[in-house]
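task queued by scheduler; priority normal; single chain, no ligands, no partner chains; default sampling; output format set to structure tokens
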Amino acid sequence: MKHPNGYGTVKKLSGKRRRPYAAYITTGYEMGAKRKNIAFLKDMISPELYAQVEAECNAYYEKNRSAKQVQKCIGYYEKRADALVALADYNKSPYDLDKRTITFQQVYEILKEEKLEKMKPAAKSAYISAYKKCGNLYNMRMNEIVTTHMQNVVNEYADKSKSTQNNLLKLFHAVYKIADKNNFVDKDYSKFVEITSEKESKVKTPFSREEVRLVWDNIEWIQKSERKHALTGVPLMDSVLVMLYTGMRIGELLDLKAEDVHLEERWIDLRGTKTAAARRVVPIHKKLMPILERRIVLNSTGHIFKSNKGKQIEYHSYLTSFFDPMCEELGMKHTPHECRHSFATYAAASKLNPVYLKKIIGHSAQDLTQDTYTHALIEDLIAEIDKYTI
């Protein structure tokens, strides 16, 4: 069946190709009459007569010139039927061709500028790490990526933890959200990608009381290394104790600023953290008072835990350049998150009020109105934290 004028066409390209069928749409018309060369008449007739014939020919071609279609390829396909469907979809709902050529990498750059740069270091690091695993998608057009492409990336890390694959899914969802908002795609294929990790989740092990005492006994320990990195010679053992006695997340700890610590009133204001429920007041345990006092003296403005260059510490740097070497030095095997797990474990053992404990940790507590901290409530939280023993 013949297509209507301006509809476009499907062409089979020459040579051996994986996708030999190309769908072309008409983007305009270019006027160009089919002129015949009459130069051979110059030697056969007089110059005056040739000029007259040439003028009449030009007038004829100007009046009867034909229009030639200007076409642009919108995609390449394995089967002719697929190319025809693409052509029909385009004519049903024409789109901006320049937008449809945008790649996965280009959308990620938009995501990085609009969202990632505003994230906390730990969350930002998760997206960056996930993106580095997506090399096969970088140069693919967004309108050519389907579920299989993303699922293959996820499947490559089936031997890793579920959190690794989950970070990939978060990245895909974020990329497609931007692509959909800007009309780069017609369908969100990321919602069909599944986690396939076969690795069991790591069992969280709280610090033993002996290990906590070991941290206290080595409060002055610092990482000494021939390799010059941001945490060489930086005292950070007190950061472990702060997490063990407050239940802070590692991201919250590294984002903590001097103005967030209210020493006289004995509470810390955690703002803009992981979830809405995590925006909270954390009471300061009496054992932490001298530690935080010293920190505030050293860093009266900005972040209280800084690198040797005076900058905020990145999560990856904290983990690889301090926490892991510290555990190895003291003969322990833990993650920063297990400090928070330890706090919850020993708080329950210390019989803290469950409702207040949820408030301190940052889990939702229906008995208390979120983000509402009266002076009386803060005093109650301080009274509860003083019951905490580890």
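post-processing summary
- DSSP finds 14 helices and six strands in the chain.
- The mean pLDDT is 84.
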